[in-house]
Amino acid sequence: MKRVAASVVSGLPLLAHAADSAAPAAAVSTAGSLLQVFIGLVAVLFLIAATAWVAKRFGVTRGGASNVLQVISSVSVGARERVVVVEVGESWLVVGVASGSVNGLMTLPRGERQPTPLPAFNASFAAGLQQLIEKSPLGDKRRGK
Asked: I need a surface site. Which of 39, 66, 80, 98 has the fewest CB within 10 A?
């Protein structure tokens, strides 16, 4: 047993020398390294975007958010001032929000949410587009004029 151990120990320098002279280490390519870093960066950015899309798609809310408090409506009344209607339980609170302060303006009984009306410009846009098509040279060709 001692002979085997002695032969292994005495053979180590020869193995190390053979490993050094056998093949030089491959040179690391700078372009390959940059490409690998770029692909990794793109993969991480894609993962972040996919996670955000899934969170938005399934309605994931921020931690600690609850259904007790909901913003019904808000309107800007200045550069940094807003009037916000907030639903809390069975009442609506109208609050003024400015930079650094929130002031309660009034309390209202809970009302019904009005569906937001579609802008009236859709019908006028369609009519205006139809008029432009009729006036254009292409419109005349389509009608056979």
From this structure: 66
More confident site: 138 or 46? 46
Could you tell me if 85 and 74 are in contact, meaning their C-beta atoms sit under 8 angstroms apart? yes
Bridge partners, 95 (sequence order): 84, 104
105: in domain: yes
Number of compact structural domains in the chain: 1
In a domain, 56, yes or no: no
User: What average pLDDT does range 5-33 have in this prediction?
Assistant: 62
The answer to whether residue 119 is domain-embedded is no
In terms of residue numbers, what domain contains 73?
69-109
- Cβ neighbours, 10 Å, residue 83: 15
In a domain? residue 102: yes
Task: Give the Cα separation of 93 and 73 in Å (integer).
Answer: 11
H-helix or E-strand spanning residue 93: strand 91-98
User: In angstroms, rounded to a whole number, what is the distance separating the alpha carbons of residues 57 and 36?
Assistant: 31
Evaluate if residue 32 carries a pLDDT over 90.
Answer: no
